[in-house]
Amino acid sequence: MKVTLDIPDSYALYFTLSSIEKELKLFTALMLVKQGKISVSKGAELSEMTIYDFMGECKKNEIPVIDYSREELKQEFEAIKRELL
């Protein structure tokens, strides 16, 4: 999908067209992950980053990449414990 966006020419003093595109993709991906609209892996895909680099960006922006409730986490640990025994 292609989206067209008008940006004032004054931004050309600070950014290149490719850097603006990269930043917009990253910020969009971060917001969508934060809102729970896409997964971290989809965010990485949208921002054209590895999942590990994208997770690092999430951390910088205080966006949790693992969103388990206390009960869900407890259930996961119990399942792991059962598998190991």
Protein described:
With 85 residues, this protein is mostly helical. It has one domain (15-84). It is built from four helices and no strands. The protein has helices at residues 17-34, 40-46, 51-60, 70-84. Helix 1 (17-34) packs antiparallel against helix 2 (40-46). The longest helix has 18 residues, at 17-34. It starts with 16 loop residues before the first helix and ends with a helix. The model has no long low-confidence stretch (mean pLDDT 90).
Nutshell version of this structure?
With 85 residues, the chain is mainly α. 59% of the residues lie in helices and 0% in strands. The protein starts with 16 loop residues before the first helix and ends with a helix.
Helices and strands in order:
Blueprint: H1 17-34, H2 40-46, H3 51-60, H4 70-84
Helix pairs in contact: 1-2, 2-3
